[in-house]
């Protein structure tokens, strides 16, 4: 009982001290956020994105209509195969990344191979020219320009 009496007296004493120390709080003036208006002559990014999507959809529709009826099942199979391949590659990479030391080791191997390639092909001027010609011919073949 003596213990309980001391605890309650300490609580009462602390409450009395707090009431004496507490000071009134003065209200502060509200700070309003500034509004900044900027004039812009650019289009809305969402409108630009919508335009690009419409152009891409129109191009896909034109290519689909240009494809003969005999080739359409093959085109669909190729698209489905590509989607399935991407999903399986992503799942495989996720599984490999969860193995503790393999992830770091594969990153190291990738850096080493990139370094060897860069050293081999970019330090010699003749090799640089060959790489540049190869890239230029590839881009011409892909873009048709």
Automatic annotation (TrEMBL):
GO terms for cellular component: membrane; thylakoid. It holds the Pfam family CAAD. The chain crosses the membrane at residues 73-93, 99-119. InterPro entries: CAAD_dom, CURT1. Its main location: membrane. It comes from the Eukaryota. Residues 58-144 form the Cyanobacterial aminoacyl-tRNA synthetase CAAD domain. It is a multi-pass membrane protein. It is found in: Membrane. Keywords: Membrane, Transmembrane, Transmembrane helix. PANTHER family: PROTEIN CURVATURE THYLAKOID 1A, CHLOROPLASTIC (PTHR33222:SF4), PTHR33222. This is Cyanobacterial aminoacyl-tRNA synthetase CAAD domain-containing protein. The lineage of its organism: Eukaryota, Viridiplantae, Chlorophyta, core chlorophytes, Chlorophyceae.
